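Lecture notes, unit on protein representations.

Consider one protein chain, 140 amino acids long.
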Amino acid sequence: MITAILVAVASLLAVFVFAGLYFNERQRIRTDYIAQFEENLLQAAKEIDTYSEKGTDYDLHYSMAVSDLGAARAMIFCVSDYTEKQKIINEIHYCFIKYPEQMRDKLPEASQAFHDVADHLDKGYDELMAIIESVDKLGN
């Protein structure tokens, strides 16, 4: 009987240790996803800024920014408690894909918003929502 109690206590301790390791690893992976999300947003902003400085090769820089936004969108969907922010990133990515002509005029604002989001400023999401709402969804 004593052996059974010792095995049960050891098993219970093992469960707590493995649960602690699981939650620690889960938090580390979540942190990695958030860092990758922010890096992808900064890369999109960098492409927009490069185009704004040079004023040439719009299609290349726009495509690169859309690609980086797609990667950011994928990373933020891996983070569980970002539902409202996920929707905003998804919508801005959609606007970049669906309405490239309208987004061309909004590139500097989008770049600033991406920098603000990467800097953990909530106003970045508000700026992105303003851009999304300013897009004429019936236009091109």
